[in-house]
């Protein structure tokens, strides 16, 4: 009995195989692909003339373009789209990449904001792309330290640093210029209120000013921390895009920068990722809805979970020519590890989280928003009980 001859793939399937073969080769080399080059790599059974015929057909359909009449072809954003769609559920991830992701992202910590900053930076290093990540607010945080910096005669910059690694800035106004020595006394007073350190020696006027500024800074922090309307956003690695030849064109680089610097557009992309509920790609003009000028870029995004609840997402911004299969695999494993790390950290340290209020009417319906700050340990209340603070001075 004669062995069965394998059936040749249908014409449309061969066309697709040639397109994907060209894309794979272009992703590796970054150079236009000619018929002879493609034949030598993967399609020895086809003649260069046959491959050129397929090229012409694919060019007519909008999947390939030719920069010069005598040169090879390169994929269009439409070609990258169908390539990404075909491989989004077939990611490619090496064992080394898996080990690197586990080493960088697997962690139990109370400093969740610091952790998410590190995740963003590490993901940028692994992917060689710009990275952006959205996060909810974490409760059971408290202020660790307060720093004061004199800006000018009537303004002080107050920097509040929390246990989770959050840094919050407020500008405080004063009637006259504060000397350097008084500034340090005010700072010491703030930290005495917070951490039970030694009380600084202040005269009545200085202590009255210190108490007034302290209450102002803390009140503003409570209001902004508890009554927020958008997700916190972490960003890193835009300079990575300079390593791609695609961004040598100033207009392409500017379009990528305009998207990366627009927090509203980034949040919209990440919110859409959360709604989709799984890894997704926006390539070329897919981004038109979010950023009309960024159609020479691509974004891949995936949500992450805390206790099986989607609470944020992270995305990478790069050129259209990206190793999609490897990045899909890396993003999926990163999302899984980050979800597990956040869940275990929050369980271990008994931390909860809140999503932003998307309606400003909530504060009107519930005017006692300060009651929602019960999770914030602002200062040592025992100082009142001991009579060390006379609150009536600042009323």
Key terms:
395 residues, alpha+beta, Arc Repressor Mutant, subunit A, Beta-Lactamase, 3 domains, five-stranded antiparallel beta sheet, three-stranded antiparallel beta sheet, 13 helices, 12 strands, 44% helix, elongated, disordered N terminus
Structure commentary:
The structure is a single chain. The protein is of the alpha+beta class and 395 residues long. The chain folds into 3 domains: 11-75, Winged helix-like DNA-binding domain superfamily/Winged helix DNA-binding domain (Arc Repressor Mutant, subunit A, Orthogonal Bundle), CATH 1.10.10; 95-136 and 231-350, GAF domain (Beta-Lactamase); 143-228 and 370-394, no CATH class. 44% of the residues lie in helices and 18% in strands. It has a 5-stranded antiparallel beta sheet, sandwiched between helices. A 3-stranded antiparallel beta sheet has the order 5-6-7. α5 runs antiparallel to α6 (112-127), α5 runs parallel beside α11 (324-348) and α7 packs across α8 (204-226). It is elongated and about 95 Å long. Residues 1-7 and 359-378 have low confidence and may be disordered.
Task: Summarize the topology.
Blueprint: H1 11-29, H2 35-41, H3 48-60, E1 64-66, E2 73-75, H4 77-87, H5 95-105, H6 112-127, E3 130-135, E4 137-138, E5 143-152, E6 155-162, E7 167-173, H7 180-195, H8 204-226, E8 232-236, H9 250-260, H10 263-276, E9 280-283, E10 297-306, E11 309-319, H11 324-348, E12 353-354, H12 362-365, H13 382-385
Antiparallel strand pairs: 1-2, 3-8, 3-11, 4-12, 5-6, 6-7, 9-10, 10-11
């Amino acid at each position: 009995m004669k062995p069965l001859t394998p059936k040749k793939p249908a014409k449309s399937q061969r066309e697709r195989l040639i397109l994907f073969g060209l894309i794979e080769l272009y992703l590796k080399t970054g150079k236009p692909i000619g018929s002879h080059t493609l034949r030598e790599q993967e399609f020895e059974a086809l003649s260069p003339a046959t491959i050129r015929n397929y090229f012409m057909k694919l060019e007519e359909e909008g999947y390939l373009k030719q920069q010069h009449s005598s040169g090879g072809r390169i994929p269009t954003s439409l070609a990258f789209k169908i390539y990404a769609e075909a491989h989004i559920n077939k990611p490619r991830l090496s064992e080394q990449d898996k080990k690197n992701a586990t080493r960088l992202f697997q962690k139990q910590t109370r400093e969740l904001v610091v952790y998410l900053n590190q995740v963003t930076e590490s993901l940028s290093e692994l992917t060689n792309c710009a990275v952006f990540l959205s996060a909810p607010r974490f409760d059971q945080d408290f202020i660790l330290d307060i720093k004061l910096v004199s800006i000018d005669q009537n303004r002080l910059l107050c920097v509040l640093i929390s246990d989770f690694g959050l840094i919050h800035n407020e500008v405080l106004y004063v009637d006259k210029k504060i000397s350097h020595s008084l500034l340090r006394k005010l700072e010491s007073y703030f930290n005495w209120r917070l951490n039970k350190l030694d009380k600084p020696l202040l005269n009545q006027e200085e202590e009255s000013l210190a108490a007034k500024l302290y209450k102002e800074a803390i009140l503003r922090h409570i209001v902004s921390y508890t009554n927020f309307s958008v997700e916190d956003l972490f960003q890193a690695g835009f300079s990575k895009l300079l390593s791609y030849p695609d961004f040598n064109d100033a207009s392409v680089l500017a379009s990528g920068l305009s998207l990366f610097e627009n927090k509203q557009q980034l949040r919209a992309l990440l919110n859409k990722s959360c709604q989709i509920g799984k890894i997704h790609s926006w390539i070329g003009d897919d981004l038109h809805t979010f950023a009309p000028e960024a159609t020479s870029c691509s974004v891949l995004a995936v949500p992450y979970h805390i206790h099986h609840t989607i609470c944020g997402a992270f995305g990478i911004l790069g050129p259209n020519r990206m190793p999609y299969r490897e990045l899909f695999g890396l993003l999926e494993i990163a999302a899984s590890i980050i979800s597990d790390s956040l869940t275990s950290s929050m369980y271990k340290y008994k931390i909860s989280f809140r999503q932003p209020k998307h309606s400003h009417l909530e504060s009107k319906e519930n005017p006692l928003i300060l009651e929602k700050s019960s999770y914030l340990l602002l200062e040592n209340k025992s100082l009142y009980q001991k009579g060390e603070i006379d609150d009536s001075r600042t009323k």
